[in-house]
């Protein structure tokens, strides 16, 4: 099994195997990586954090916190980032349902963005975001006890600014 890549929504959910190594892009805004990090509030309710980084600059483009984030919401978040930075050439993700849905596939096709999906169970194929997520968990999530989702959003936003 090799990494998969979708280049067109016309190939609706047909995955084309490609063998692409994890290389640092040559310039900013060429490749973004995305993933989810889970945590829990003091009440025990789970929260989901969508993280996105530029692989060249290692800049955190967003950490969006919610109880649930659908594929449609992912596209809205990406559009809000693109308003400031433009669209990337490529986005690398795992094969989670939010990243393999029709909404994201259609969005990528409309904006000329290539979606690169890593192999299941191979997080090292998305090492840039996994490295960021490790720091995010160690420096922010493990250091704070969130009382509610607004507290989590505020604390995470402040952590991002540092």
Q: What does this 3D model show about the protein?
A:
The chain has 162 residues and is of the alpha/beta class. It is built from four helices and seven strands. It has one domain: Ribonuclease H-like superfamily/Ribonuclease H (Nucleotidyltransferase, domain 5). Helix 1 runs parallel beside helix 2. Residues 8-14 have low confidence and may be disordered.
Shape: globular
The overall strand count is 7
Main beta-sheet strand count, sense and barrel state: 7 strands, mixed
In the CATH hierarchy, the architecture is: 2-Layer Sandwich
CATH topology: Nucleotidyltransferase, domain 5
- The overall number of domains is 1
**Global Rg:** 16 Å
Q: Report the structural category.
A: alpha/beta
Count of DSSP H/I helices: 4
User: Can you identify the CATH class?
Assistant: Alpha Beta
The pLDDT mean sits at 90
**Relative strand content:** 15-25%
**CATH homologous superfamily caption:** Ribonuclease H-like superfamily/Ribonuclease H
